[in-house]
Amino acid sequence: MQALDATGTVRSDATKKKSIHDEAALARRRFARQQVLFLTRGWSAATGKRWTLSVAPLLVVATAASISSAGPEVWAPMPLPLFILAAFIGPLAFLAPAGIFLLWSKQLLNGEARVPHRSLWALAVLGALNFWYFLSVWTEGVLRYGHDYVLTVAIVNAGFVATLGGAAVRSYRRPTFASSLFFHSLLFLWLVWYAFPYLGEGP
Fold first, then answer.
1. pLDDT above 60: residue 30
2. 181 lies in which domain range?
3. Contact 59/98 with Cβ under 8 angstroms?
């Protein structure tokens, strides 16, 4: 009996030590996870405004390149919304897209990670309208600028929309500040550079 008791005591002590070790390891993992979350949130909150504001000058450059183009080119296909905006507000059209980006993406200035539903709806609506626009002006665009040009511009537009769709899904499933910033930056870059390129008068 004494041997059994001794064995039982040894086994009990070993079990207790293993349990204590497991609890300590779990506590360390929880602490490390909390530290990562803290640092991530602190990073996005502290630098969200800086990173978001840095996109604005890039949009100004892209807008200037689009407006300054002498005619539709593959690198600058003259997006119609931008030229309609320029017709109404003149030189302010160079700055308007950057200002609209900052107003639309105000959540990024606070370091928020999730893409708001309004941005997802905007992509869906604009993507559908862009597809309809290509269908309506395809024939006239081919007659004006040639099949290769229209096809190239359409493929690039499709690439923009597909990339934005993938970025939206990824950001929705695993929201991070970086993915949200990438999505909104690419969305506005598409709008000022390639969306609704001038191909003719349309229907």
1. yes
2. 48-193
3. yes
